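Please fill in the sequence for the structure shown.

STRUCTURE ENCODING:
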């Protein structure tokens, strides 16, 4: 797809109005670590209590920040904690996959308040734009009145230039140089942010999840693709050219295995759900076999299905060890799209990881969690919230 913007993005909906760097810092701190008192907010941002007060006063007046009634600590002066009023603004997040779009409405504090999904025709870019725009309009009309809407975050897999709102290359979707951000902004008269789907999940964890307490973490996603978002030294790794953490394309699998990216031997070529299904189909000569069938077969001990999940687990475990040896994160979240099949390869993932993790890097905590398409869409909403807050607008 080569798609040229028809309309420049316009500004509509609520303005955050964070007019100084101090206001951005304090607001971000309260958003991600609130409720916190003024002294603590100042300590965490390096500002004086007076500077914190000057930064938050206009935001309290506009209803973005609320001040709780003072509590009475055992020692010292009473503290009136500051918190973001999540309902003061909303964001819409949409994750586009090859056959469906998943949308959510979240509060400013990333709580999901509404959701809807639509099937997509993966072969028509224009039809995808129309379906996503219609989905966003329905969500907006139902749950996010225009006056309080910050905008729309959209995520896709692949190489995404978030600044420019351009999908450079998404092999799963078959899109190249798609000016998705400007196109949707024109259609919807909304601020739109486009982001890589896994990086957006990392932003969500950074601000509203494990990143609140961990100095570094990685989130690895397992499903139709194998992805990895990295958070190191206070920031999500974005890559100088927009690509980083492409763990699914580490060449750790059988060199004969063909990957959707066009290369061979990638982890994804044996460990994506599509690759697992394909292996079981080939073994049984049954083209109509689906993921659910492969899972059922593996549970009944079918040799080909068991081997496919074992191979996937080994490749994922090896990729995890490679990433942990390189980056050394404190926590790794392994987020699986289908919880159902996790039991089929969790043991293999852990075995292979432990076999290859080097020295103290192996001390990192592996947390396997289930993961839904709502979580992907919430990540898209957080990408929008983060972009607006960081720009202060
Ligand atoms: Zn690949």
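FILLED IN BY: designer on duty
SEQUENCE:
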């Amino acid at each position: 797809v080569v798609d040229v913007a028809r309309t420049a993005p316009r500004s509509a909906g609520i303005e955050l109005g964070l007019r100084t760097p101090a206001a951005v810092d304090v607001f971000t701190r309260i958003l991600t670590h609130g409720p916190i008192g003024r002294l603590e907010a100042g300590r965490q941002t390096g500002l004086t209590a007076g500077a914190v007060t000057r930064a938050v006063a206009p935001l309290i007046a506009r209803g973005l920040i609320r001040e709780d009634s003072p509590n009475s600590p055992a020692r010292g002066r009473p503290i009136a904690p500051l918190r973001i009023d999540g309902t003061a603004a909303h964001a819409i997040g949409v994750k586009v996959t090859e056959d469906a779009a998943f949308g959510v409405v979240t509060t400013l504090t990333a709580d999901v308040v509404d959701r809807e999904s639509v099937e997509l025709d993966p072969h028509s870019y224009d039809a995808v734009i129309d379906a996503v725009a219609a989905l966003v309009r329905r969500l907006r009309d139902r749950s996010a009145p225009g006056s309080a809407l910050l905008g729309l975050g959209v995520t896709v897999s692949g190489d995404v230039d978030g600044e420019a709102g351009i999908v450079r290359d998404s092999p799963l979707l078959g899109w190249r140089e798609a000016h998705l951000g400007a196109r949707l902004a024109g259609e919807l008269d909304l601020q739109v942010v486009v982001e890589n789907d896994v990086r957006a999940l990392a932003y969500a964890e950074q601000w509203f999840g494990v990143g609140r307490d961990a100095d570094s973490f990685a989130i690895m996603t397992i499903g139709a693709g194998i992805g990895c978002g990295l958070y190191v030294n206070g920031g999500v790794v974005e890559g100088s050219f927009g690509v980083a953490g492409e763990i699914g394309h580490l060449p750790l699998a059988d060199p004969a295995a063909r990957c959707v990216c066009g290369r061979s031997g990638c982890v994804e070529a044996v460990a994506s759900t599509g690759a697992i299904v394909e292996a079981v189909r080939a073994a049984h000569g049954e083209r109509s076999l689906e993921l659910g069938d492969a899972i059922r077969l593996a549970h009944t001990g079918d040799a080909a299905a068991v081997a496919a999940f074992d191979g996937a687990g080994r490749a994922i475990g090896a990729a995890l060890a490679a990433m942990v040896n390189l980056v050394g994160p404190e926590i790794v979240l392994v987020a699986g799209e289908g919880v159902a099949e996790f039991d089929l390869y969790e043991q293999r993932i852990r075995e292979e990881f432990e076999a290859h993790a080097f020295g103290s890097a192996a001390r990192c905590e592996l947390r396997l969690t289930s993961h839904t398409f709502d979580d992907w869409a919430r990540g898209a909403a957080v990408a929008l919230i983060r972009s607006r807050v960081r720009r202060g607008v």
